[in-house]
Amino acid sequence: MIRIYPIFFSISLLLSTFDLFAQSKDTTISVGQHSLHFNITAGKGIPIIFESGAGNDASVWQKLLAPLSARLGAPLITYDRAGFGKSGIDTVNVNLSTEVADLKRALNKLGYNEQYFFVAHSFGGNYTLKFADENKGQVLGAVMIDIVSPYFMTMERGKSLKIEYADRLQEIKKESLGFYHLTMNYENSTAILHEVAPHATIPMTIIGSGISPFEEPDRSKFVAALKKFADEKDNRKYILEPNAQHHIFYDNPALVIEEIQSLYKKTTSTE
């Protein structure tokens, strides 16, 4: 009988974890003139908020959720930013600042009011840095996956990106209102990044890809700029995954899951 107890306990723990992950909530939250679509995996403790990259919706994170739920048991919150996935968009008042304010309003309505942990990819890093700046002391840590650093996304580059898409704007508008307004706001988003990034103090694990979404020489510049941003503060850990493309969590999910688990436990521990 003594040998059965550990086995029974392990099975019970595994079943409870699967049950926890099964308790996912798919919902939309009104934030004024539009609603944001959320998917929430039930859990206990500090919630993990996932910020997708430009042009992506919450579906990109799907394969990370079950392993993270099993390891951490924390609430996992993915959402579609305005104009993407199942989220609406207020085309009159959409910009990075209002989107960050809308996210905070929605999180409060969902009952998450005090502390957060973020996982951000690419352009989602801009939103995470702005959220942390607007809600000082509430973001305990962030895993930043191949984010756009201020040393790469200069004001000049922000302007040139908008010009690059100029001939396709009407086509883009028909395909995705979210991406259209993201493109129209490139300069404003870049200005905000340069405003908040120098003051960022939250602990970060920054995972860079060796195969960034650019051709040379911009590829090497992107990698070097991200490392420079990571090296600025002692509480930032830098990892280069040389064989992964921009969506590192597609090519090496084990690495991303391990680093999320590590920093989450380090920054949210009450011991």
How would you classify the helix and strand content by structural class?
alpha/beta
The rough form would be described as: globular
Whole-number radius of gyration?
Answer: 19 Å
- Tally of separate helices: 11
Summarize the entry for a quick read:
This protein is of the alpha/beta class and 271 residues long.
Secondary structure elements and their pairing?
Layout (H helix, E strand, L loop, with lengths): L3 H19 L1 E7 L4 E7 L6 E4 L10 H11 L3 E5 L15 H14 L6 E6 L2 H11 L4 E7 L9 H10 L4 H7 L1 H8 L1 H11 L7 E8 L6 H14 L4 E10 L2 H4 L1 H16 L3
Parallel strand pairs: 3-4, 3-5, 5-6, 6-7, 7-8
Antiparallel strand pairs: 1-2, 2-4
How is this structure best described in words?
The chain is of the alpha/beta class and 271 residues long. The protein has one domain (24-268): Alpha/Beta hydrolase fold, catalytic domain (Rossmann fold), CATH 3.40.50.1820. The protein is 46% helix and 20% strand. The chain is built from eleven helices and eight strands. It has helices at 4-22, 62-72, 96-109, 124-134, 155-164, 169-175, 177-184, 186-196, 218-231, 248-251, 253-268; strands at 24-30, 35-41, 48-51, 76-80, 116-121, 139-145, 204-211, 236-245. It has an eight-stranded mixed beta sheet, sandwiched between helices. Helix 4 (124-134) links the parallel strand 5 and strand 6 (139-145). Helix 4 crosses helix 8 and helix 5 (155-164) runs antiparallel to helix 8 (186-196). The longest helix has 19 residues, at 4-22. The radius of gyration is 19 Å and the shape is globular. Mean pLDDT is 91; it is low at 1-18. InterPro entries: AB_hydrolase_1 (IPR000073), AB_hydrolase_fold (IPR029058), AB_hydrolase_sf (IPR050266). GO terms for molecular function: hydrolase activity. Residues 47-152 form the AB hydrolase-1 domain. Residues 1-22 form the signal peptide. It comes from Sphingobacterium detergens.
